[in-house]
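dumping this here so i dont lose it again. seq + smiles for zinc ion
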Amino acid sequence: MALVHCPKCDKRISDKAEVCQFCNHVLVADPEKLDSERRINRIKKASNLMTQSFVALILFIGGLAYSAWYSDDGTSTDKIVAQVVTAISFVWYLITRIRIMLFKRDKK
Ligand SMILES: [Zn+2]
């Protein structure tokens, strides 16, 4: 068993230690654990983006359908709200799709 210097507090510790006994600095990052954490984060991010694009699409279709069905009264507040929702959700959907595209491209 050799002694090495802790990179953080510079005290002498065993080279087998995973955590410095003096300052709790993590010396050996488990690559498998890091990898699985990264994978879990990617899955979470991907499902979050998919949920967002789904919600945006539903809002878009809903807003579009609402303004189409109530087209007889063009000045009603409801219709204006529906059109604003449609426009915002359309932009939101596009942004989310672009983010998904960039996310997929950035496969490590
Ligand atoms: Zn230390």
